[in-house]
Amino acid sequence: MKTKNMCSLTILVALLVVCAAAGYAAAGDEKWDARFSDPQFGGLGLDGEVYAVAVHGSDVYVGGYFSTVGGVPANNIARWDGNAWNILGTPEANGVDAEVYAIVVDASGNVYVGGNFFTVANSTKAANYVAKWDGSQWSALGGGADYTVRALAISGTDLYVGGEFTTAGGKAVNYIAKWDGNQWWPLIRLGNAGVDAYVYAIAISGSDVYAAGSFWTAGGLTSPGIAKWDGMTWSTLVRSLCSSLSAGNCYSQGYGYSLAVGSDGIYVGGDFTAVNGGGVAAQYIAKWNGAWSQPGVGLSGVVQALAASGSQLYAGGKFTGFGSTIANNIAVYDGSGWSTLGSGVAGDGEVKAIAANGNKVYVGGTFTNAGGKASYYFGIWSLSLDLPNSPSALGASAVSDSQINLSWTDNAGNETGFKIERALAATGPWVEVATVTANSQSYSDTALGACTTYYYRVRAYNGDGDSDYSNIANATTTGCLSAPNPTAPGCGTTVSATSPTLSWTEVAGANGYIVRIFATPDCSGAPILTSSQLPAGTTSYAVQSGLLSRGQTYTWQVQAKGDGVTLDSSWSSCCSFTIATSSAKPLALAQVQVKLDFTKTSADSCSLKGTLNMDAGVNLAGSTATLSVGSIQVPFVLDGKGRGKSTSPVGSLSLAYSKGKEVWTLTAKLTKGAFQGPCAEYGLTNANIKKPGITVQLPVTLSVGGETFATDKSLVYTAKYKRTGTAK
To answer: Which residue, of 331, 402, 513, 656, has the fewest CB within 10 Å?
Structure first.
């Protein structure tokens, strides 16, 4: 594991410092695939360096010096299918025993591999630096080479091999040779086989084979760094690569490390600053099409990998940029100028291999960061993003106390699969719990807790990124009571009382209920009240006076409690109500009919009954009320329809709303003696009891929810009495 260093800027190199590992971001970074992060933490990156990349159809072959790919054991070579890593062989016998430096695939899909290895398939077969994988098994190519293979290229059935070896199949070949499927052949000119030093790259254009490396001669011809084999003989490319500019002479040799066949010529990258015998400046990259030229302004450092795709040429290596532009080890040339690939690659590394195919560019090297995000030794750049459409109509249903089934509509045709996330609240935090394959439209989430509400969301993904999320769906696992339903006050309504009575439906089998009230709009956060457990059969709860404030909105929930065998229900849906900003208007008494009975008892006693019409301003239904006449008080509890019974068995109250008159009519029906007291309580005395009419003033008030609504004046009435006894 390499340690990421912080970037340090100095005045001299301020424009050329590689800062991607420290969080530098640039336009285009979103085109780098984010899946290849550290495999130790679930990413699909590798645990070692990548030196070779080759593409065949939808398969990408990656070679280097590593033991795992995305956490999967793999011996130095693996195949990426666009979604997952695959090994070349079985878990017990796959890959090669040392570094892979070159990979090429023929038209039949046979994979040829060169490197520093001796054996293949977990050391079960000798190979000697070069081998073939045919899709099911490994095989050697004759006797192989006598030392490291660095380059491979294929033309029909002929495989060209370059590197640090001098023999192949026991024949003297000198750093480059051809395998025809049966035996090895040297590339000889006038008795001079091959080249005089290492070959690092081979490219084929038509019948011409180009080789680049650290050699000075090819077939006995002076051709520093690059030469051409036409199938019969070697030829030079006009005094070739130089390490300095010197017209007409190449006194100091340059090295060629990479080759690519473009639509307009042969491109070579390496460690050189001039071509054509030093007569043409070429900063680490040059183009040959019968004459030498430099692509654009060149690059600032060694080019180790090239790949051509259409009119685009991708270059990678160990450079900071081009001109004054920071590129961080990778750039693209379009025939007229260079461009960056976002913020490039970094993390104490460089680019060693590039392959391009259609919309994708595959990059390998010693880096651990691409486009400002973790990308361990391998990365994918997309020329344009083709994100999948998001799924819709996500639904969730509980099928047991430990399983919830999900279903959704797949609206994408280009997804790799779907990511499923779960939370214990609609606001998260969310955790990815599973991924499913392309075209999936369902998933069963198991091993869940009983009687727990789970929330889900789903999104599609592919190599270019993730879609938007689906809708959120939730379900509650079984094994518990059903949740009660709030009934009063109606959700979203306004109530007058600051101590309202909350009501709900009864749940069969409930052992009791708990109510909680919140000052938040969605029943989130800490409740301002949590009741003690209410008895079984309870369906209402009167909020104590002084807890709630006028003009405020509150939310509440109720939960049914189990008996220890059956679990508690989930909390009910969140229901809101608002306390009116002001109390009801004063009671406007329109009419009071009073009948006074004077009965003969040990003390004079009188009773009162009547009907009051009043404008209460708000709905009083569902409230606790106390009607007072004089000093006599009778408490009542009004239900949701405005009917009420006294808490002592003395009578009843009822509320009726007259829409036309916009008033509430309160009718009191009292048993005998309900409003009963000494006659003097009503202002009656022996002195005036015999009079046909008496005017008496009595205060009448109605108290609801701890608030008193008084008449705008004292009740004035004329008593009509019937004497039933003799006053004493």
So the answer is: 656
